[in-house]
């Protein structure tokens, strides 16, 4: 007869429910409230089972309403991996080998939007918060790409939110990477070229002090813009796009071989198409 008790007074059917991940580990998603002692026994028994099975990383997703279980898991050797508004992710490495658990997300993604109209006027704003508040510096609309949002979607949304202007995304002209930014994370900032679809400005009062269509030369003449790195190069990009062609990267949808999901690859599509045509002539 099969024994009912597996270890530490926990029945086999009372082990923590888990699913395998793609890298030899398991993922536990806690959902039901439980006593901390019961949880500790289930966790110890489960870890013993997973060790015998040769599992590697163990992930435990703890919803905010079960925060009382976090201390118990930490005492068993788990550590914090990352947190979101509604849950905390804990992790544990079983084998006595080098830990290959990936670090938490390391980058934040931001955009800056160059919106030029046919009058050679640039859409610019003065910020109501941040380092440039009260400096009278005019800058292009900027913002942070939201979770699950593509770069081109974020650029369209940010321009609309800050100025009320509808735009069409054209291309990525340049990007910058910095480190040790907000919360010690790295930062990717994409400068995007946009085409205006409307022209009546309705600024966002919370974040924007002022917004206007400014002659490109007037924007470029600002001392701050002429002296400071990314502002200077943004000015140069504005001028070269107004005067002649400067090819950027456009988003092209691609489908994943693994799960059929759609993402976007940014590259100089026109240039690639021309080169491909030349090769096949």
From TrEMBL:
Q: Which GO terms describe its molecular function?
A: ADP-ribose diphosphatase activity; metal ion binding; NAD binding; NADH pyrophosphatase activity
The answer to keyword Metal-binding applying to this record is yes
Entry keyword set: Hydrolase, Metal-binding
Gene3D superfamilies in alphabetical order: 3.40.630.30, Nucleoside Triphosphate Pyrophosphohydrolase
Show where the Nudix hydrolase domain sits. Answer: 106-238
Tell me where on the tree of life, at the top rank, the source sits: Eukaryota
Keyword Hydrolase assigned: yes
- The membrane-spanning stretches of this chain are none
Query: What family is it from?
Result: Belongs to the Nudix hydrolase family.
Protein name per its UniProtKB record: Nudix hydrolase 2-like isoform X1
Question: What organism, scientifically named, is this protein from?
Answer: Nicotiana sylvestris
**Gene name linked to the record:** LOC104218885
């Amino acid at each position: 007869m099969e024994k009912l008790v597996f270890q530490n007074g926990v029945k086999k059917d009372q082990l923590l429910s888990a699913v395998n991940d793609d890298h030899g580990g398991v993922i536990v998603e806690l959902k039901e409230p439980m006593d901390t002692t019961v949880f500790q026994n289930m966790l110890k028994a489960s870890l013993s089972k997973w060790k015998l099975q040769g599992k590697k990383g163990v992930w435990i997703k703890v919803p905010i309403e079960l925060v009382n279980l976090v201390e118990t898991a930490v005492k068993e050797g788990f550590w914090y991996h990352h947190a979101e508004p509604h849950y905390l992710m804990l992790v544990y490495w079983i084998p006595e080998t080098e830990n290959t658990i990936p670090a938490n997300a390391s980058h934040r993604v931001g955009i800056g939007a160059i919106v030029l109209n046919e009058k050679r006027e640039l859409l610019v704003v003065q910020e109501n918060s941040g380092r440039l508040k009260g400096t009278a510096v005019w800058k292009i609309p900027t913002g942070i790409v939201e979770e699950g949002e593509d770069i081109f979607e974020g650029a369209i949304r940010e321009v609309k939110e800050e100025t009320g202007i509808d735009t069409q995304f054209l291309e990525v002209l340049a990007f910058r990477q910095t480190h040790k930014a907000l919360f010690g994370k790295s930062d990717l900032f994409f400068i995007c070229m946009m085409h205006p679809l409307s022209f009546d400005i309705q600024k966002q009062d919370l974040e924007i002090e002022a917004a206007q269509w400014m002659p490109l030369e007037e924007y470029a003449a600002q001392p701050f813009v002429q002296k400071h790195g990314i502002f200077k190069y943004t000015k140069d990009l504005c001028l070269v796009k107004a005067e002649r062609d400067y090819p950027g990267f456009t988003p092209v949808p691609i489908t994943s071989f693994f799960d059929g999901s759609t993402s976007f690859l940014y590259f100089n599509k026109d240039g690639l198409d021309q080169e491909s045509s030349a090769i096949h002539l």
